[in-house]
Amino acid sequence: MNFKSIQLRQLRHNEFIQYNKNFLEILTGYDLETLKVKEQSDSFSSLLSAITALYMPDRGSEITKLLEEDDARRDKAIYGIQAVVEGFCNHFDAEYVMAATVLLNSLDKYGSRIAKQNYQGETAIIDSILQEWKNESVLINALSKLSLTDWANELEAANAKFNSDYLDRVKEDAEQSDMKIIDIRNQMIESYRVLTGRIEAFATISDDQTYSTIINQVNSVIPKYNAVVDARKPKKEEKETTEEEVVSEPSSNES
Fold first, then answer.
1. Which terminus of the chain, N or C, has fewer Cβ atoms within 10 Å?
2. How confident is the model at residue 196 (pLDDT cuts 50, 70, 90)?
3. Which residues contact 231 (CB under 8 A, 6 or more apart)?
4. C-alpha R_g of the chain
5. pLDDT, tens digit, for every residue of 156-165?
6. 120 falls in which pLDDT band (50, 70, 90)?
7. Distance between CA 14 and CA 56 in Å, rounded?
8. C-alpha angle with apex 120: 116 to 125, nearest 5 degrees?
9. What is the mean pLDDT of the chain?
């Protein structure tokens, strides 16, 4: 009894990982020591853990969550400053109105949607605003007049924190290069071949029906993933199985 062929190389990263998780979940439901495939299964499991750790979509990254918090912090600061400045524009004291107008003009140069820019765009704009506020005496005095110096300091700290964490994210992404994932995928496909081949061999020579049960359970899953791959192919390609595709399939036996 053999495992059905599966087009592992044509699966996208997330699909590849999910199929192999399904495969391993089926396998680990049995006593692998008794079945004499624990060593091969452990090796496969180790590779699966490695590729899962490398393949981390944005929503799964702790640094991404931190960036969202950092961005919210600086957005709060910029919105707060804008609100105070706009409020003082209606003050009864002309000196406060003048200070507010100077600051509002400084902000308006960058548009009304500073907090809606993309991450790096917002970082650059805030840096430019802060440089003006620290270097031009009229703006320094205006901040002091409206008691906004602490707000400006908070905006600077929040923006610096965001930029630092963003650079950490860039480094994380670089370490999670696609080449590393592809390398582990290739190792996993070979490990899968070895593991499934061993199970097939025992299914042939052993009286233990567990091997056949495992194969049947895995075979019930495989068509679902092949269907996903086939759905992406041009219609002509669906009718033909090229030599390259046959070679790419992990099981050494055809079903």
1. C
2. very high
3. none
4. 30
5. 999 999 999 8
6. confident
7. 10
8. 70
9. 88
Tokens 């290739």 correspond to: 186
Please give the Cα distance from 37 to 35 (Å, whole number).
6
Residue 162 tokens read as 């965001």
pLDDT in tens, 43-94: 999 999 999 887 765 445 566 788 999 999 999 999 999 999 999 999 999 9
Q: How far apart are CA 228 and CA 233, in angstroms?
A: 9
Token digits of residue 253: 């036996």
User: Token pair for residue 144?
Assistant: 């002091």
**3-state secondary structure string across the chain:** CCCCCCCHHHCCHHHHHHHHHHHHHHHCCCCCCCCCCHHHHHHHHHHHHHHHHHCCCHHHCHHHHHHHHHHHHHHHHHHHHHHHHHHHCCCCCHHHHHHHHHHHHHHHCCCCCHHHCCHHHHHHHHHHHHHHHHHCHHHHHHHHHCCCHHHHHHHHHHHHHHHHHHHHHHHHHHHCCHHHHHHHHHHHHHHHHHHHHHHHHHHHHCCCCHHHHHHHHHHHHHHHHHHHHHHHCCHHHHHCCCHHHHHHCCCCCCC
